[in-house]
Known about the structure:
The structure holds 2 protein chains of 2 kinds.
Chain A: H1 3-8, H2 17-31, E1 36-38, E2 44-48, E3 58-63, E4 68-74, E5 80-85, E6 96-100, E7 110-114, H3 124-128, E8 138-139, H4 145-151, E9 157-160, E10 165-167, E11 171-174, H5 177-188, E12 198-203, H6 211-220, E13 224-232, E14 252-254, H7 265-277, E15 282-284, H8 294-298, E16 305-313, E17 321-324, H9 325-340
Parallel strand pairs in A: 3-12, 3-13, 13-16, 14-15
Antiparallel strand pairs in A: 1-2, 2-12, 4-5, 4-9, 6-7, 6-9, 7-8, 10-11, 11-17, 14-16
Helix pairs in contact in A: 5-9
Chain B: H1 3-11, H2 21-31, E1 37-40, E2 46-50, E3 64-70, E4 75-81, E5 87-92, E6 104-109, E7 117-123, H3 133-137, E8 147-148, H4 153-159, E9 165-168, E10 173-174, E11 179-182, H5 185-202, E12 209-215, H6 223-232, E13 236-244, E14 262-265, H7 271-283, E15 289-292, H8 301-304, E16 313-320, E17 328-331, H9 332-348
Parallel strand pairs in B: 3-12, 3-13, 13-16, 14-15
Antiparallel strand pairs in B: 1-2, 2-12, 4-5, 4-9, 6-7, 6-9, 7-8, 10-11, 11-17, 14-16
Amino acid sequence: MDLKTLCEAQGVSGREEHIRRMVWDACAAKLGEDALALDGLGSVIATRKGSDPGKPRVMLAAHMDEVGLLVVSATEDGLLRFRALGGVDSRVLVSKRVRVGYDTPEKPALAGVIGAMAIHQQSPEDRKHVLPIEQLFIDIGAKDKAEAERMAPAGTLVTFDTPYTPFGEGLVYAKALDDRVGVWNLLNLLDAPYAGELVFAFTSQEEVGLRGATSAGYRVQPDIAVVLETTAANDLGEIPEALQVCRVGQGVCVSFMDTASLADSQLYRTMLALGKEKAIPHQVKQFVSGGNDAGALQRAGAGSRTVVLSVPCRNIHSPTSVCALRDMAAQESLTRAFLENL
Amino acid sequence: MDILTYLQGASTQFGPSGHEQPIAQWLKARFEPLCDAVTIDPLFNVLATLKPNTATARGGRAPKIILCAHMDEIALMVTEVLKDGALRMGNVGGVDPRILPAAVVTVHATGEGDTAVPLTGVIGAKAPHLLTDADRTQNYKREDLYIDLGLPVETVKKRVRVGDLVTLTGETIPLLNERAAGKTMDDRACIAVMLEAAERLARMKHAAEIVFAATTQEEVGCRGAKVAAHTVNPDMAIIMDVSHAPIPASKPDTTIPLDAPAIGYGPLLQFKLVDRIRQTAVKNGIRLNAEQLESRTGTDTDTVQIAREGIPSILVDLPLKYMHTTVELLDMNALRECGRLVALFAAEIDEGWDESLWI
Lengths: 342, 359
């Protein structure tokens, strides 16, 4: 399974079935179907039994879902009204291509575009104000409301249409790097050496409130959960240093704290020490922002000790999020080193 | 001609205003099989001539018609290399900053030689997690946006020079109902209208000499067309450009319907010729809407009309949604009808066409 395939596949929160199928098949090939389970919210739980019951039960978690758009109705002239699923700044939507509906062999996704009033026709006031999502429309070329409703009924899911593209020195831009990067690394870690019980949780619905991780955490009850994520970087364009979160290309980012959880202090220190000892590029997340599955896993059932390893990501939740391949490799290496030393 | 294939090819050709050599060469090759002679002038206007294929009514001089549509595209240029390697940008033509956050661009880098090397860049956008109250209400200003080349600052400084051109990306995609969306439909779609018309005219009798002018520098003041009109020295001009089709935010009387051509009317547009092309449309069952243009048209008409001793001009509009974005959307049937209309109209023009034009 390569990252390109994972990123280009469609899997908005609550409708992760395409990703689920890929993950299931990849896990089944390595661990066998018997090791796999689906929970009540569609998270894939792959369990690797340990030979040493004295070792803690470790969960590695990454979320399958991506932010996207949801068709809610059609205008008289055949445009689609929509809402965001997950956090999307409406400023990234103007002049972008989208795929309306999911690609299946029977029915391919429709091409759509999000336009806006031409600059020639904007008033000086128009130019200043952000167009909220309620004033943006997806255009699939439908002639009228009836055709639009037939082709893309309310409830149709929409994803960004961005081919996974390497650029610069070792960077890629794509949609859904958050968190297909984590999913990809989880798949890369299926054979990681660890003698204790190791559970791989591919969670659903992170972007709409850490919902999949809540039930997955309850089911698995891990002693330790390591969340493989991406995080906003905010490192370019001469952003004041105090507002930068982390730096793309400078290694995997270890979070001390975000808005959803505080890292277990011992795990946090272990990660930093291992990074240093094994010379794995790493950095500390220096701005408290965002939240992820660790918030749910830490407090599921009787509680777990959690830590988050994130790949820095520019333009996160936009059609063209940007990550560095070496940061992804560092995320995998540090997770592997952690398991080896546990 | 397969219009979608043409649009997909045309939109990937390089041609910011003032730098149209590549698109001019590409267009020259498109006109050559259809026309008798094709030249490129010093401003990179492509002038493709179709000689008359029938004698004039009284055996006198053949009238000469220029058809104009512009080839140049709006673009950006590098204005500053920041300390972290990101690039600030300025406009070449009217780029709306609203389309830029999270857009993919190509920086044509000349730091290591005059032959530009294309570098892929992404325009930065703030994470939703980090938005301030101001971010939620205020648009990005172009001066705050930056291009990320994914390169270390030293490399950027070596490869990129201030002044390097930056083009937008946006491959042309087909939509429902023969519609298509992409960049540079403004105005390369109207060059498709000219190619359609050239194909038709080759099979029709026409007493006029017809010169198709794919013009340059329209987006910075219709400058190429001024020179083209001088060189061609035509008796009449038909300008083709895109105009706004309605979207939900449109104000009344500022748009034309998407699915049919329109004819401009107003002081700059020769009233008898406007009437005449309307009759051509009626006779041939072509739906033709109208757009009022009470002053300057914002098209090549504005400079062509006043070239030399004055050129009676009309403006045929191809409707388009989302102008100056990378998802400019049009109806390919309307495009074909535009081509049919101007071909039929040009074929009607014969000696004596200008009798009682003004009085």
